[in-house]
């Protein structure tokens, strides 16, 4: 089973790009929601992310992971591969 990965981003956000690069380097397909200046979309994201409005916000199988630092922490402990279905590139 392939994990459903979603990431909310802004096009000029360096943390968003860093998180996407990690996912791309792992060969993970993800759905990107670019919400540049879209307050309605940002409010929807915040509702899903327990009130968090910073970017990126990342979800794996509809479970809120958090932001870029959270993603890298999960990767460094091996937990990200487990969440993604155990496959490593």
UniProtKB/TrEMBL annotation:
Ranges for domain Glutaredoxin: 5-65
Gene, per the UniProt record: grxC
InterPro entries from the UniProt entry: GLR_AS, Glutaredoxin, Glutaredoxin_subgr, GRX_bact, Thioredoxin-like_sf
Functional summary from the UniProt entry: Has a glutathione-disulfide oxidoreductase activity in the presence of NADPH and glutathione reductase. Reduces low molecular weight disulfides and proteins.
Family stated for the protein in its record: Belongs to the glutaredoxin family.
Entry keyword annotation includes Nucleus: no
Residue stretches in coiled coil: none
UniProt entry keywords in alphabetical sequence: Cytoplasm, Disulfide bond, Electron transport, Redox-active center, Transport
Keyword Ubl conjugation: no
Domain of life of the source: Bacteria
Name of this chain's protein: Glutaredoxin
Species of origin: Sphaerospermopsis torques-reginae ITEP-024
PROSITE patterns with a match to the protein in the record: GLUTAREDOXIN_1, GLUTAREDOXIN_2
NCBIfam families, per database record: GRX_bact
Gene3D superfamilies reported in the protein's UniProt record: Glutaredoxin
